[in-house]
Amino acid sequence: MELLVWFFLAQQQTNSRIICRWMATPIVVAVFSTGIGLVEAANKSRLGISLNGEPVDYLPCGTIPLSTRTAVLMGGGDDVKEAFSWMIAKMSQCGDGNTGRPGNFVVIDNGSVPPDDTYISIVGPVASVVTLVVPDIETANDPALEPYIRNAGAIWLTGGDQGRYYNFWKDSLLEQLISKQVRNFKIPIGGTSAGTMVLSEFAYVADPCAITSSKALTDPYSQCVALRRDFWSDRTPLPPLLSTVTDSHFNARDRMGRLITFLGHAINSQWTSAAIAQAIGVDEETALLMEIDDNTDPSSPGTNFSYKVITNTGVSGSVYILSTDSQSQLNLEPDQPLSFTNVKVRKIETAGNESDYIIDVKEGDLISSTGSIY
User: Fold this and answer.
1) Separation of alpha carbons 195 and 60, rounded Å
2) Which position among 92, 213, 249, 265 bears the catalytic label?
3) Fewer CB within 10 A of the terminal residue: the chain, N end or C end?
4) What Å distances lie between residue 233 and 50, 132, 192, 263, 264, CA to CA?
5) Going residue by residue through the chain (374 aa), what tens digit of pLDDT does each one get?
6) Virtual CA dihedral for 211, 214, 218, 223, nearest 10 degrees?
7) How far, in whole angstroms, is CA 99 from its chain's centroid?
8) Which of 138, 175, 201, 284 is flagged as catalytic?
9) Is the Cβ–Cβ distance between 29 and 7 less than 8 Å?
10) Is 33 assigned a catalytic role?
11) Bridge partners for 18 per DSSP
């Protein structure tokens, strides 16, 4: 059948970078589809595409999954470029022991912050860096996304507003394509700031409003404590992030109190058990590199994983992993400040330095066993 659609036909080249933008240019094309919904969505699509290099139509290892599953959680601020080098190296480590060909590193943005990805192509061997700007639900259901995600050797979610991720990508074709690509081929996936916060099974979406630690602790049932668990169709792209909630810009914006509140909500709502629930906070200019092999059940919550924390030069950022045990007691009720005892904190710094301490929340006040919340 013939349909009148809005399509893009604009390109400009700056150095080796090709920038494509959607324009309101009507053309008639032949479309064959069994589901008219996606075709209608494509008509309203505002997909933005920029290319650095020449995209290839294959994965680095072909149809062979990678040897391990990997992810990067970055805390916002200036990107930790070493984390991209790590992802690029992982995207060609084939499960059969061979080294794959350079592939496509795909950056996906929700339209809230213009991404700057020009440096990714020079931190490791890739065929191309492809940036997709997906600013609404119609665009997230555009079939034009499929070849880019199907040939993605690694996927990166940018920062900005995680509410846009949730409102525009939930239950969309894009979310399903990402989930399938990571699940089937174990390609590396990562994100920074808002991109980090939507990678876990439980996500704070900051919609309709943002919440501070002080407000969350004194009013844990505020409408601004907007925790969701239904963004990913398969719960989360990476098994170690099952039963997990994440937060970014952690120390700089004093988010320990609100992350503890999020952890309490996940347990109190019976989304998970206290025995396996965890929360991860990542400082600015800091990245948590996560890796898991398939010797363990990939669908099992609380799966063990290897990890490493890296930062930009001169930055003393850390990652904080929060959990509870049988000694923890939680009192989370409307119109009352939070009480939550024996919250275990593992602080992981660069060079493998780690420390463990306990935080108790008593009527909204944080008390640390070391005297320091961070």
Assistant:
1) 24
2) 249
3) N
4) 27, 21, 21, 21, 23
5) 322 223 232 333 333 344 444 433 222 222 223 233 444 455 799 999 999 999 999 999 999 999 999 999 999 999 999 999 999 999 999 999 999 999 999 999 999 877 778 899 999 999 999 999 999 999 999 999 999 999 999 999 999 999 999 999 999 999 999 999 999 999 999 999 999 999 999 999 999 999 999 999 999 999 999 999 999 999 999 999 999 999 999 999 999 999 999 999 999 999 999 999 999 999 999 999 999 986 655 455 445 789 999 999 999 999 999 999 999 999 999 999 999 999 999 999 998 899 999 999 999 999 999 999 99
6) 0
7) 26
8) 284
9) yes
10) no
11) 13, 51
Structure tokens at 127: 């065929």
Please, is 350 exposed, middle or buried when counting C-beta atoms within 10 Å of its C-beta (0-12, 13-18, 19+)? middle
Residue type at position 64: I
- State the pTM of this model: 0.88
Closest CA to 165 of 104, 120, 100, 230: 230
Q: How far apart are CA 325 and CA 327, in angstroms?
A: 5
User: In angstroms, what is the C-alpha Rg of the chain?
Assistant: 21
**Cβ within 8 Å of residue 207, ≥6 positions away:** 163, 166, 167, 226
Neighbours of 78 (CB within 10 A): 11
Domain spanning 46-208+221-316, CATH class: alpha beta
265 is annotated as an active-site residue: no
249 catalytic residue (yes or no): yes
Residue type, 316: S
Beta-carbon count within 10 A of 35 CB: 11
Q: Among 237, 232, 247, which Cα is nearest to 194's?
A: 247
Sole residue written with tokens 């020009």: 118
Q: Which residue has the tokens 């980090």?
A: 196
Tokens found for residue 22: 């959607």
Do the Cβ atoms of 187 and 178 come closer than 8 Å?
no
CB 272 within 8 A of CB 99: no
Amino acid letter, 8 = F
